[in-house]
Amino acid sequence: MSGKALHYFFGGNTARGFFSLYDSNFAGLEKVFILKGGPGTGKSTLMKNIANDWQEKGYDVEFIHCASDSDSVDGVIFPALKIGIVDGTEPHVIEPKAPGAIEEYVNLGNAWNSQQLSTKKDDIIQLMNEKDEAYAQAYHTYAEALAVHDEWEEIYIANMDFEKLNVLTEEIKTTFFGEIHLNKEADVRHRFLGAATPIGAVDYVPNLTDNIRKRYFLKGRPGSGKSTLLKKLASTAEERGLDVEIYHCGFDPNSLDMVILRELGIAIFDSTAPHEYFPSREGDEIIDLYHVAVFPRTDEIYEEQILGISKRYRNKMNEGTACLAKAKKSHDKLEAIYHEAVDFSIVEGIQKEIENTIIELVEGSSVNEFS
């Protein structure tokens, strides 16, 4: 039987620039292959090929998607094997913790024809500059959008009954945790459930919550306390020794969008745009913070102001997406240049070397009952 696949992001194009949560997800691995090489050298395909092979063998795999192209992956992890493979090129340059002992560099640049690339030097430099400028403009525009979003939040923060919100938080804590205290250190992972991409917002909520028994859908407005509630639940879970998956907002990584407690079979997440979902199976439940803790008729009283803010916010977000699309256009042209200069038979050989190393590590492990 095939293993299960988990899909998420560890990096994001955010209002605070490119934001990486790499360390949290690759912590504890005993072997990490860091791939180097330009665009179009087959890094994503190599990782997918190896991941699919081990998944077919029955191993669970974590696919870490690229925020700049969600069809590509920036990394894969085999939890049972404690092995990972990751793209170590810009913007997610990775500093190894134990070079050689844990991390191993794999240079796919050995597969390209440098002489052929040198004839395209001017084109490569121009496209690199165009891509960098487009990303810089995207981050600047998202920062402007965040400022507009803060205006939106201020309306609801000024009209919140925080006592009711605190009472609700304590009730949820009791429902989730009861008297549970585990005698172990919590395993805490920080990730993104979604990302701002060149085609708009993309998320993996259905996949991440697929096997979760009880799902709580947080509804509300900007500033109605969803992220604060999630932070308090995550903190309580960690204090009690429960493993926690903490999913940050792909727009503002200082905010949270979801907390998953797999040991308890619980997921609770911000289920508003751009990742809006509704109950679809037994065990699903809505928690509406607007109706619980926001003063009545706030929407109606501030309707005109909210409409203006939401329009400005949406326009800025669309501008940011357009900038990411422009960056991807330049990146695709770069990929085409490098692709023409790569000998993919060499890449296939590198893939085989990685596969053989993984097999040797598994067979040589004292824990060889993986399969």
Automatic annotation (TrEMBL):
It comes from the Bacteria. InterPro entries: P-loop_NTPase (IPR027417). This is ATPase. It comes from Viridibacillus arvi.
